[in-house]
Amino acid sequence: MTAILAVLQYTVAAAxxxxxxAATLDAVQRRERPRVYLAIALVLFSLVPVIARVQxxxxxxxxxxxxxxxxxxxxxGYGILLFRSCFIPLSRTQHLLAAALVVAAVAFTLVAGLxxxxxxxxxxxxxxxxxxxxxxVVLVGDPIVRFWLASRDHPPVQRxxxxxxxxxxxxxxxxxxxxxxxxxRLQNVPAQIVTQLIALALVPMLYASLxxxxxxxxxxxxxxxxxxxxxxRDLLVFSPDRATAAARAVGxxxxxxxxxxxxxxxxxxxxxxxxxxSPAQVExxxxxxxxxxxxxxxxxxxxxxxxxxxxxLHLSDGLGLLGALPGPFTPVFGAYEAGQLGGYxxxxxxxLDRVRMTERLAAMERAKGQFLNLASHExxxxxxxxxxxxxxxxRGTLGPLNExxxxxxxxxxxxxxxxNALIEQMLDAARLEEGRLxxxxxxxxxxxxxxxxxxxxxxLGDADHPIVVEAPDERLTIPMDAERVQTILTNLIDNAIKYxxxxxxxxxxxxxxxxxxxxxVHDHGVGIAADDLPRLFSRxxxxxxxxxxxxxxxxxxxxxxxxxxxxxxxxxxxxxxxGKGSTFTLTLPTSEADRPxxxxxxxxxxxxG
Length: 609
Ligand code: ADP
Fold this sequence. Notes:
Elements: H1 2-30, H2 33-57, H3 63-87, H4 92-112, H5 122-151, H6 156-185, H7 189-211, H8 214-222, H9 225-238, H10 242-257, E1 261-265, E2 271-275, H11 279-291, H12 295-300, E3 309-315, E4 318-325, H13 335-395, H14 403-433, E5 442-445, H15 446-457, E6 467-470, E7 477-480, H16 482-498, E8 506-512, E9 516-522, H17 533-536, H18 557-567, E10 571-577, E11 581-589, H19 600-608
Parallel strand pairs: 6-8
Antiparallel strand pairs: 1-2, 1-4, 3-4, 5-7, 8-9, 9-11, 10-11
Bound molecules: adenosine-5'-diphosphate.
């Protein structure tokens, strides 16, 4: 039994020596202040069980060794305090108090001596050891709470890292209490064996909490997976501009690896987004990338505190740079982290490229809208003047014309009216784009609007295209902007005639639907292929076939008609078969209450009256 205990005691001592060695190796490799403090603390901590073993082997315990042990023990507590101070800084006063506590505890213990060679009377001997341990627990105990509290304000990876540190301190105290207190006070061998076993089991836990093997940081990162997926989707689909996309990307890059700072530098060396970096640091990085836009060359320049992760961003117009810089709570960066960030960088590059493309398209759209607006405004005046003179010529105000002159003027007048209608369509389209098109809703009888539209078109029609109106007997009065609905209907009836070169009746049928009134315009014309149907309603969307190529038009009529229908809270749909004819159905809600939730444009319209 005693032999087992002895073996265990040596094993525990060896485990602590190994822990100290691992920490020292880490500190030498990384040369960071917190790691150096931690290595000092753990090496000093390992001296305590080692000295205990040496003492046990000596014929008589050496007082000098006891004193070294005391110094190592409290030195370890102070080292841990310094380690913690790198993460959550201590104030000057706190530092002084802690140092005073260490000095006082050392002085007291050295003077009084530890049991069994204590200079105090029997009942007080254990007190010395208790004071020593208490001082140590105060030094080491405080960070447990601090780290835990600080962890609440951090994203998962850093949070887990902070909690890992908190746990590490708790384990240290547990080891001390189990190993020293219980071990020294319990004089029976089985109890001592149990305490040694517990101490031994705690050593790997301590190592895991402080050094964080890759597996552990992978687990922390797994907590982020769902949110990360969502963030990547947002980045790819919803970012309104490059700056927002880059800012989101940088935030996630840092979060993903638990970094303290991160940045994205654009192809031209301009910083696109940064987080946690000083302006000087940003400037240095940006300048270095401008000089050498190559990841290897850039890292060779030593602009950044190491270890940083640097990934090239393959953007459509060149190479950008994504970087993540470690901070005090960052888990160790390794190949896994670099891989993770590398994968993420592809999504970032795709997101940034998509936003750039959307921005360019939006700029083109804006230019198109502006051109439409400008051109139609400029055309409106001359066309009005031409129409005025035409009408004067027709009426003979400017002198009599012979029959063929009159004939020519009539054709020109009809063409000028057509031009005017096109200009009005272009102006309406521009107004719609800019949200300036406003409806004036009032109760209107549906049949009367349809008949007025038919009356407007009839003079342009001919005997081959009789227009028929079918309506229920009841009067249907619904809120609408009568002028706009008339525009929709004249467009539909005009199209029905235009696209029925072989003639055939045009039927306008009014029916009552569920909370809506439907007005269908049906023709027996060329029809539209199913594949082309979705295109009809887009701006300038025309379907060019052998049957329709010669028919004039600019493809704005149906676009406008559907937008106007939707502004009313209704819709316009098409149903057609090639060679058989088409039916365009306008749906209008019967009351304001039936108008579905409006989009921003329509809300503005409604607000505008
Ligand atoms: P436009 O008539 O000026 O070209 P529209 O927006 O009114 O523009 O129509 C878009 C396209 O839809 C037309 O080019 C035509 O190909 C098709 N179209 C519209 N109405 C009909 C119809 N009644 N029958 C067949 N094709 C039609």
